[in-house]
Structure formats: C-alpha cells, structure tokens
From TrEMBL:
Domain Cytochrome b5 heme-binding: 9-92
Protein name: Cytochrome b5 domain-containing protein 1
Listed PROSITE patterns: CYTOCHROME_B5_2
Residues in coiled coil: none
Lineage: Eukaryota, Viridiplantae, Chlorophyta, core chlorophytes, Chlorophyceae
Species per Swiss-Prot/TrEMBL record: Chlamydomonas schloesseri
Pfam families: Cyt-b5 (PF00173)
Recorded GO MF terms: metal ion binding
UniProt keyword Iron present: yes
Amino acid sequence: MAPPRGPLRRYYTPYEVATHNTPDDCWVSFLGGVYNLTALIKANQGILAAPLIAAAGQDISHWFDPATKEPKRHICPATHIERFYTPMGRFIHVPPPEPMCDWDTSFGLPWWRDAKKYQIGLLSARTRVIRVRNVLTDQEDQIEVPCEEKLVEIRERYLDLNAHAKSYTWKALVKDPNGDTHVFQELDLNLTLEENGVPDETPVFEDHHVPADYYIPVLHVYWNDDLTVA
C-alpha cells in the first residue's frame, strides 16, 4: 500500500480524504476504497492526470461500474462502438478510443485494479461524532470517527489530541443489556462503540427531524498513572 500522510488507518472518513486535494497530495475514494494517487500523478504528468487532479479529495465511485469495478463503458453514438465513458476526460491508464501506435501499455495493471500499490484503506460507510472528556484535566474534545472502528482505533485518533491516550481507561454510560436502565462502565477496546453499548442515534434524530448534534455521546477517559509513551 502507498504510504499516506499521517498514521495508517483501516478506515478513513470522507473529511480525511477531502484534505488530500492537491497534485502533490492526491487521494480519491471509489467503491468503498481509499487510494493515494500522488505517486501515480507524479509519474504521469500531463493531460491524462488532469481529471484525477480535479477530483483530488473526492469520491469518484460514479466513474466506475460497481459490478465490474472497471471504468464505465457506453456505446459511442458516432462510431456505434463500445468504449470507456469518460465525460470528465480520459484519465491515466484508460486506453484511447481508437487504436494508436504510441499507446504505452507497459504500466501493467491499471491503477484502479492495483489495490496493493495504491489502496491505503477503506472509506467509512457511516461516521459519527463523539465527545471525549478527560476527567483528569476536565478537557473535552469532539471528534468524528468511522462507525466501523473499534475503540482501540478511536484511541489512536485521540492520540493526536492527547499524546498519552494509551495511559487512560475509557468509560461511558451504556445501556444495560438486561434492562432499560443505563450503567456507567469500562469500555472494551476491542469492540466498536455500538458493540460496547454506545449506539449511534443520529439516524433516529434524522427520522424525527432533530438536529444531529442535539445529543453527542461522551466517552470519559480516566488517568491510569503510568505515563505510557505514545
């Protein structure tokens, strides 16, 4: 996998992808994957790089056929021949519509098939916002996290805000599985927030036309007094 700027993650939020939006730092997402195309663009500077540069930081799933995972195709109205459908402009590794003697195919796999080289992770299907309250300092931070992440992965994100995040115990008010009450308990780092009993209630709020930020769950972190090195 191509090395991303910053820590390697299993899942990325759309916002994280959107911050990589220049020719020198170009990420895109499509069909659930996140791809770092910076090296590809540097190696293929020219008109074919222009559509990818214009789409840097964006989701380009609509460029591809979900069934084949290849760029979409259509029947050309002028020639009645099937060819790649690229209204955004032909991009790197897409062959020309007509045979050309100077078309170089030595690149091997087209970039969209070469996940080993370009894919750096997965795009979160749904994100949520949480608050993390440091009981020791009384500081509270709000962060967006993928719903698919385990708490240990969320803790890695919190390291950007607290270099000693690994020295804390994580607790939250969770629903008691044996009843309708809530209990304050330690969270399992190897489970997602949902699995820990901290559900994402945003869809419920949306169904009732309640602002999504009406209630944001709070995770409380308690100092363990062992100054772990990040």
